[in-house]
């Protein structure tokens, strides 16, 4: 039986950004050795309908701006959206590569360049297609006193997972990706195999154009 989660908020600090000022809070816990984060705008304690993004770490997208995925763009769009609100939270989970880590994600990238999609690449390396989980995110939101959320996501599984951990999701706010030849196949896989809520027709057009130009 898994031990009860013990979460500790260690330190918070003011972080001014290009889109506005936030507080960044660092959490430790008794289940992994990772430092999960909450980027907070305004006073969220006891608030309903708080705009929230649950974001899993993506070094290539978040830091390098890689166009193989839409992760970095989702993070920055979420920051921009929340900066326009009086309050909001981005929970930043250290779950690189849908939970497989950066080394294995880079290996999966090489398999994708050989023709596998993002799901089959993970499976070929012996990993589940997605081994992320969101109990940590739910615990952080509860620690911050958030009572219900408007979730910035295209992933219905994330909504169901948060609800199962006691976080009431009152609304889904879509995050519309920019489609590039390098991420069209990835986004199409998200729709077809991971049930993400994106515009199929636009993606099919860009995907067909990228295939015509020799992209996988």
TrEMBL record:
<feature type="binding site">
    <location>
        <position position="71"/>
    </location>
    <ligand>
        <name>Zn(2+)</name>
    </ligand>
</feature>
<protein>
    <recommendedName>
        <fullName>GTP cyclohydrolase-2</fullName>
        <ecNumber>3.5.4.25</ecNumber>
    </recommendedName>
</protein>
<comment type="similarity">
    <text>Belongs to the GTP cyclohydrolase II family.</text>
</comment>
<keyword id="KW-0547">Nucleotide-binding</keyword>
<feature type="binding site">
    <location>
        <position position="69"/>
    </location>
    <ligand>
        <name>Zn(2+)</name>
    </ligand>
</feature>
<feature type="domain" description="GTP cyclohydrolase II">
    <location>
        <begin position="12"/>
        <end position="174"/>
    </location>
</feature>
<comment type="function">
    <text>Catalyzes the conversion of GTP to 2,5-diamino-6-ribosylamino-4(3H)-pyrimidinone 5'-phosphate (DARP), formate and pyrophosphate.</text>
</comment>
<feature type="binding site">
    <location>
        <position position="58"/>
    </location>
    <ligand>
        <name>Zn(2+)</name>
    </ligand>
</feature>
<feature type="binding site">
    <location>
        <position position="158"/>
    </location>
    <ligand>
        <name>GTP</name>
    </ligand>
</feature>
<comment type="similarity">
    <text>In the N-terminal section; belongs to the DHBP synthase family.</text>
</comment>
<keyword id="KW-0686">Riboflavin biosynthesis</keyword>
<keyword id="KW-0342">GTP-binding</keyword>
<keyword id="KW-0862">Zinc</keyword>
<dbReference type="InterPro" id="IPR032677">
    <property type="entry name" value="GTP_cyclohydro_II"/>
</dbReference>
<feature type="binding site">
    <location>
        <position position="153"/>
    </location>
    <ligand>
        <name>GTP</name>
    </ligand>
</feature>
<feature type="active site" description="Nucleophile">
    <location>
        <position position="132"/>
    </location>
</feature>
<dbReference type="GO" id="GO:0009231">
    <property type="term" value="P:riboflavin biosynthetic process"/>
</dbReference>
<dbReference type="GO" id="GO:0005525">
    <property type="term" value="F:GTP binding"/>
</dbReference>
<feature type="binding site">
    <location>
        <begin position="96"/>
        <end position="98"/>
    </location>
    <ligand>
        <name>GTP</name>
    </ligand>
</feature>
<dbReference type="InterPro" id="IPR000926">
    <property type="entry name" value="RibA"/>
</dbReference>
<dbReference type="GO" id="GO:0003935">
    <property type="term" value="F:GTP cyclohydrolase II activity"/>
</dbReference>
<keyword id="KW-0378">Hydrolase</keyword>
<feature type="binding site">
    <location>
        <begin position="53"/>
        <end position="57"/>
    </location>
    <ligand>
        <name>GTP</name>
    </ligand>
</feature>
<feature type="binding site">
    <location>
        <position position="74"/>
    </location>
    <ligand>
        <name>GTP</name>
    </ligand>
</feature>
<dbReference type="InterPro" id="IPR036144">
    <property type="entry name" value="RibA-like_sf"/>
</dbReference>
<feature type="binding site">
    <location>
        <position position="118"/>
    </location>
    <ligand>
        <name>GTP</name>
    </ligand>
</feature>
<feature type="active site" description="Proton acceptor">
    <location>
        <position position="130"/>
    </location>
</feature>
<dbReference type="GO" id="GO:0008270">
    <property type="term" value="F:zinc ion binding"/>
</dbReference>
<comment type="pathway">
    <text>Cofactor biosynthesis; riboflavin biosynthesis; 5-amino-6-(D-ribitylamino)uracil from GTP: step 1/4.</text>
</comment>
<keyword id="KW-0479">Metal-binding</keyword>
<dbReference type="Pfam" id="PF00925">
    <property type="entry name" value="GTP_cyclohydro2"/>
</dbReference>
